[in-house]
Design brief:
heterodimer, A: 184 residues, alpha/beta, Nucleotidyltransferase, domain 5, six-stranded mixed sheet, 34% helix, B: 155 residues, 2 domains, 36% helix, 19% strand, elongated
């Protein structure tokens, strides 16, 4: 009984102050280190390819049975998506400007999802902006082509044709090429 | 007598403890915030004045590569100013001053390591594609066909 009472005294009704001083000293050392190495403005990159005379010829030779997807940006008319099938069938989707001024990014994303669902093995898109298109618009367009904006869309593609391995991805067209970079 | 008693009472040594719980709370919040902003990138890309980068949802961290800056008024390769944006001839597809500077850079890089043809392009978001196209054309001709477009991270 005496033992039980002592145990009760040890565990209940005893106020103890937690010594926070060592924790605080660790934090005081950690915070300056983190302050020095933190980046409050994160710079990221978008991989793009420029066409080269020789490279384009090699690419032409390598061309397989996938369709070519070209995206034209016009500051006067808006977007035009051109899908060129291997059997020379050309399909066009036009997305006009909103109020004649702003590019319709949401509709572009929606149309690209539809194209991706039809051709899940295609990851490349050729951008063809006109000279008046702003750089900011081009970057936003690349963003719209990279991933679906809303909803959970995944696309199944054949990763390895020999083994028949299928993989799922939420990427649409992450490989961007500036088709008209050498035209200027 | 009364005064003396009070003085004696004050003289008695007393244990004084500072309550640092709230301070520890504040440091914890600060630590979490700083850990969130901790940069895992192997290189830090400097921002230059008069250049507003566009925002993108990309998440690829930059690598250590030559950087070309196209600010509102000038074109720079690393720390070296190449030409003014206003001096670019709209009738010529390339920028001759930039081409010679890039060829020089290519030669320097070839002496150090095998060049991959990669370059980071930091351009002002308000520039028209006309300017960007000329820079890209010059980059392609100079042997830098893999252009990494630098943007600010955002959703």
């Amino acid at each position: 009984m005496v033992r039980k009472k002592n145990l009760h005294d040890l565990t209940h009704g005893v106020e103890t102050d937690l010594d926070l001083a060592p924790l605080l000293s660790i934090m005081v050392k950690l915070i300056p280190v983190l302050l020095l190495s933190s980046a409050f403005v994160h710079v990221v990159i978008i991989d793009t390819d420029l066409p080269q005379p020789i490279k384009s010829r090699i690419e032409e030779n390598k061309k397989d049975q996938n369709p070519e997807i070209e995206l034209k940006l016009s500051s006067q008319t808006g977007y035009e998506i051109i899908v060129k099938s291997p059997n020379n069938k050309v399909e066009r989707v036009t997305i006009p400007l909103i109020d004649g001024k702003h590019f319709n990014f949401v509709t572009l994303n929606h149309e690209l999802i539809k194209i991706k669902q039809r051709y899940p093995s295609v990851f490349e898109i050729q951008l063809n902006p006109d000279s008046e298109t702003s750089y900011d618009t081009i970057i936003r367009t690349i963003d719209m082509a990279r991933k679906p904006l809303r909803g959970k869309h995944t696309f199944q593609y054949l990763k390895n044709p020999e083994t028949g391995e299928v993989e799922e991805t939420d990427f649409m067209f992450p490989e961007v090429t500036f088709a008209n970079a050498l035209d200027g | 007598m009364y005064r003396r008693k009070n003085f004696q009472y004050m003289e008695v040594p007393k244990r004084f403890t500072l309550n640092i719980t709230s301070m520890a709370d504040m440091f914890t919040i600060l630590l979490v915030f700083l850990l969130q902003n901790y940069s895992l990138s192997e290189v830090k890309v400097d921002l230059v004045p008069n250049l507003k980068l566009p925002v993108s949802a990309s998440f690829i961290n930059p690598k250590k590569l030559p950087i070309i800056y196209v600010s509102k008024d000038e074109i720079r390769l690393g720390d070296k100013t190449i030409t003014k944006v206003s001096d670019i001839n709209p009738k010529v597809p390339q920028i001759p001053e930039l081409l010679s500077a890039l060829q020089e850079e290519q030669g320097r890089l070839q002496g150090i390591q095998k060049t991959s043809g990669e370059i980071i392009l930091q351009a002002d978001r308000d520039h028209s594609y006309q300017i960007i196209q000329k820079v890209m054309h010059t980059l392609s001709v100079a042997g830098f066909p893999k252009v990494k477009l630098a943007t600010l991270s955002g959703e």
